[in-house]
Write a structure and sequence with these properties.
Chain lengths: 719, 135
């Protein structure tokens, strides 16, 4: 903030040289103003204001000299002559470039002396009040003639007070007063017929006052001015007289000079003194610029309608009844006029403020709505996230964790705060942590999705494999917002994959074993016997005995039996031709003989013509169950129970041996249990394997019989 | 047996044509072979149509096995004697065959010695069985 004193000094400093230079460059012109009276008279002041306002636009540096004839204070012609002589001598060596006369005496002074005292100096006059005989002005003169409009004033008064019946003209007894009265009488003659027109001009002020107090109703007063009353009392300022008149009159007082307004006069079409001064000043300026006086025409009738608002109000006159273009003085501005800009500014400010507040409220409402939407969206997200069966996490742009869902917390058994930031890494298996963080970090830097597997410590301390998929998040303006990811526990899947891989391996191994066995059977048994038969046939060529033929026949039958046995092992023809019950019973019998164990076989209600896949499934489970029992139970006594209806088949194989852990057996042992389960699943059956160490094993299966082929015959029996 | 040649009408059912030929040659001098079929369905149909005296049935045949054909014949009015002619030596087969109404059970490997005996026994309402191993 600059120091104001410094600013003022700086401005003056900048302006001074300029003003000085300007003053030096402008030519000097002298203006001499001769006034009728001194500045105590309001009319002289008004006139001087008008002259100054015109001279203010002068392109010259003006030297203005004001002189006063003071004819009212010094009316003696000898005194006036001394004044004239003094002024002539005063300006003898300081000639003015233009002279302005204000009032009749200065004009008369110039008329009589200007050729000798001020030769060639142009003269602008104003405010002359001509006496009898209008003087002849030469070519050095031009100016503004004073004018009075009593008729127009009465016209305006009658408009304001239409009920007027009496018109009273009040004036003075001085020479100038009489001059005016004469003119007024001349102008008001048209009213004599319709109005009671009277003149109060030869009264002393006290008599006048008394008279004015008793004026009849419906009267208007026209005050022409009073320099002196009938008693010779002078009213130098003019205001003194008008104030007395207005104070005394019980009717509205109208006037003819604007100088009396403001002292109680209502107004009228008044002589516009200030404007006359301005025009005279303008004429002087033009003459300074070189125009000749004779080329500037004289101006007349500078009057205007001018009224005093307070007086109008006093007499109850309406402004609307005033002539158009009237100037209204002392008019008390209305509230609107006084405070219009304050009101407009306040209202504008209020509206602006209201607009601003409305905007802020609207903005706040929008923000709240947006916040509610975001809150609702976030609530839904958290609800979804916390009820989702997967672990969900989010991170910010700094790679640090900002959110994990309830599933994550349940899984790790840690609290929310512990997982934030880099806390989640604490749950990662030490062997996986580095690789995990590297994948995350590289994908993060490239803003790419990623998938990785790692082990996370569960709440019970076990490390579980999880599959973690992360995708980058972006804001509406496409700026990066972080990552969102989800994890699922894939431990069981991995184990299943491993188990499946093991099953496939064992399946291949089992297939190879079976091929080897068949191969050995074909080679070691059947092929050997065929070779033996070939040898014996060769011998037949040489011997040809019947004994040899019997031997060949026996050999061939043995081969046939071997082939049948092999065929039976691969596929039970009994199952096909004799049915499930017979095949199962036969198998149990053969199995018990082969392995030297006891099998209690019972069957009840098993349909003979079961669908092939159902019969084969039950038969294979029976085979597998007994083979496992012999292999692992260590027992030598087994129970096989086969039951059936037209709709269902039940099989139960039970031993009383060592038992085993079913889960471990499913994972680690051969195809037996897995294949049983898969076979049962294929026919939409169920299998339950119950076994506990040292508590024996029980395999129970149930298979529904499809209704497409209803059972026709039921057999029953026991081994 | 020769006297019965003209009156013993035999129907053969086996899915192996060579086996049908061997049996035909074996029986041609002793029986009237009225037909031979290669699956169980034809066998049942021919039996019901031709009403033979002897129906020689293999067990392993397409569409219907020998047991099913035998049950079908027994459930009809056909009075043919059923002789199972098979390679199955297991007693479960033998038992099943007789439970299905068979009159004889002959192993193919013993056709030359047992088949005519089995037919003759069947014609006389006897049963014939050769057990290659203890039942």
């Amino acid at each position: 903030m600059a120091n104001p004193h410094f600013v003022i000094v700086w401005v003056l400093f900048c302006c001074l040289p300029c003003s000085a230079g300007e003053a030096q460059s402008k030519p000097v012109r002298r203006v001499l103003i001769f006034n009728e009276v001194g500045t105590a008279y309001p009319g002289i002041n008004l006139m001087d204001q008008g002259i100054r306002s015109a001279l203010r636009t002068s392109p010259y540096k003006l030297e203005v000299y004001r002189e006063y004839m003071d004819t009212l204070l010094f009316p003696d012609p000898a005194d006036q002559q001394r004044f004239r002589d003094f002024y002539i001598r005063k300006y003898q060596n300081r000639k003015p470039d233009v002279i302005i006369t204000v009032g009749p005496s200065p004009l008369k002074f110039m008329l009589e002396t200007h050729h000798s005292a001020f030769p060639g100096v142009p003269i602008a006059f104003c405010l002359p009040t001509w006496g009898p005989g209008t003087p002849v002005l030469d070519s050095d003169f031009t100016g503004v003639e004073n004018a009075f409009a009593p008729f127009e004033t009465i016209e305006a008064a009658l408009r304001l007070q239409p009920s007027t019946k009496h018109i009273v003209v009040v004036g003075g007894a001085g020479a100038h007063d009489k001059l005016l009265e004469e003119r007024v009488r001349d102008r008001l003659k048209p009213y004599e017929r319709n109005f009671d027109l009277s003149y109060l001009t030869n009264l002393t002020m006290p008599d006048l006052v008394e008279t004015l107090k008793r004026l009849p109703n419906h009267t208007i007063v026209l005050f022409t001015g009073m320099g002196q009353d009938a008693a010779g009392t002078k009213f130098i300022s003019g205001e003194e007289a008008v104030e007395k008149v207005v104070a005394a009159a019980n009717a509205p007082v109208f006037g003819m000079n604007d100088i009396n307004l403001g002292h109680g006069e209502v107004g009228g079409k008044v002589s516009y003194i200030r404007e006359q001064g301005r025009i005279a000043g303008d004429m002087a300026l033009r003459m300074l610029k070189g125009e000749r006086p004779q080329d500037i025409p004289t101006v007349r009738d500078i009057t205007t309608y001018m009224f005093d608002s307070r007086a109008l109000k006093r007499w109850g006159f309406k402004e609307s009844d005033l002539p158009p273009g009237s100037i209204l003085l002392n008019r008390k501005a209305t509230f609107w006029e006084s405070y219009k800009w304050y009101v407009i500014s306040s209202i504008s400010l209020f509206l602006l403020e209201a607009l601003l507040i409305s905007g802020l409220l609207w903005q706040r409402t929008r923000r709240r709505h947006a916040e509610n939407v975001v809150r609702e969206s976030e609530r839904r997200f958290r609800l979804v996230a916390n009820t989702a069966p997967v672990m969900i996490w989010m991170s910010g742009t700094d790679k640090l964790c900002t959110y994990v869902n309830q599933a994550w917390l349940d899984f790790t058994g840690r609290n929310f705060a512990a997982e934030m930031g880099s806390g989640w890494v604490e749950s990662i298996h030490p062997e996986d942590a580095k690789a995990c963080f590297d994948i995350y970090s590289q994908a993060f830097n490239r803003r790419e999705p990623f998938t990785m597997q790692y082990r996370v410590r569960r709440h019970d301390g076990d490390y579980r494999w999880v599959l973690d998929r992360g995708v980058p998040r972006f804001n509406d303006d496409h700026s990066f917002a972080g990552y969102t990811g989800s994890c699922v526990d894939i431990t069981d899947r991995k184990l299943a994959e491993e188990a499946l891989s093991g099953v496939s391996r064992r399946l291949i191994e089992s297939q190879e074993q079976e091929r080897s066995r068949i191969g050995r059977e074909l080679h070691d048994d059947i092929n050997q016997q065929l070779a033996l038969l070939a040898v014996e046939l060769d011998r037949l060529d040489k011997n040809g005995s019947t004994k040899d033929l019997q031997g060949f026949k026996r050999r061939v039958m043995e081969i046939a039996r071997a082939v049948e046995a092999l065929s039976h092992q691969l596929h039970s023809s009994k199952l096909e031709y004799l049915g499930l019950a017979a095949a199962a019973k036969s198998f149990c019998k053969e199995f018990s003989e082969t392995h030297n164990v006891k099998i209690d076989f019972t069957q009840n209600g098993v349909p003979r013509n079961l669908p092939g896949e159902v019969a084969l499934c039950v038969f294979r489970v029976l085979q597998e169950g007994l083979q496992n029992a012999v292999k692992y139970s260590g027992a030598d006594h087994f129970e096989v129970e086969l039951c059936g209806t037209a709709a269902d088949i039940w099989l139960r194989v039970r031993d009383f041996g060592r038992g085993f852990s079913v889960d471990d057996a499913m994972k680690t042992k051969g195809l037996g249990l897995v294949s049983m389960r898969e076979r049962v699943n294929l026919v939409k059956g169920e299998i339950v394997i119950k076994s506990q160490p040292m508590a024996g094993t029980e395999i129970s299966m149930h298979v529904p019989v499809p209704t497409a082929e209803p059972a026709r015959e039921v057999t029953s029996g026991a081994a | 047996m020769n006297n019965q040649k003209k009156c013993t009408r035999v129907l053969l059912a086996d899915d192996l044509p060579e086996m049908l030929e061997q049996v035909r040659e074996l029986l041609c001098d002793h029986c009237e072979l009225i037909g031979s079929v290669t699956d169980g369905e034809q066998a049942l149909s021919a039996a019901l149509t031709l009403n033979p005296d002897i129906l020689i049935l293999d067990i392993s045949m397409p569409i219907l096995n020998g047991f099913e054909v035998a049950r079908g014949v027994r459930e009809s009015n056909c009075r043919a004697k059923i002789v199972f002619f098979t390679i199955h030596e297991d007693s479960d087969y033998v038992d099943t065959a007789f439970s299905c109404g068979a009159s004889a059970y002959v192993l193919k490997c013993r056709a030359g010695t047992d088949l005519l005996l089995a037919i003759e026994a069947a014609l006389q309402d006897h049963t014939f069985i050769h057990r290659s191993k203890p039942m």
